[in-house]
Amino acid sequence: MFKDYIENANFEDTGFSYTLSLISGKYKMVILYCLMEFEIVRYNELKRYIKSISHKTLSSSLKELEKDQLIIRKEYPQIPPKVEYSLSDRGQSLMKILDQLCIWGENNRPAR
Questions:
Q1: Can you name the residues that pair with 71 across neighbouring β-strands?
Q2: Tell me, which fold does domain 26-108 have in CATH?
């Protein structure tokens, strides 16, 4: 009975799978966490915050997060260009989950 259930189940149809597809990748959750902490952040500030990220990876991660409506990109018409990122309402709704991950990590991190 249970074997039939798992054979017909499809992980890709779950809400868990959908959520993971939005935040998967090495840096997306870090970007979201940074925006939660600092609210409005410019591109170069994100680059400094996430020291190990390449420009290409940061750029593509930001584009994907914007496409998935988790962040808002605001561009100012000036020279040099000024672009700011912030959480959308949809992205803000994920923050309770990310905050719980942070709390879990603090509580379960091995002593240094």
A1: 87
A2: Arc Repressor Mutant, subunit A (1.10.10)
Q: Which CA distances in Å does 73 have to 14, 15, 45, 97, 103?
A: 29, 26, 14, 22, 28
Measured CA to CA in angstroms, residue 84 lies from 19, 32, 94 at distances of 25, 13, 20
> What confidence tens digit (pLDDT) does each residue in 55-79 have?
999 999 999 999 999 999 999 988 8
The secondary element (H helix, E strand) that includes residue 23 is helix 15-23
Amino acid at 73: R
Using 50, 70 and 90 to split pLDDT, how confident is the model at 12? confident
> What is the reported pTM?
0.81
Domain ranges of the chain: 26-108
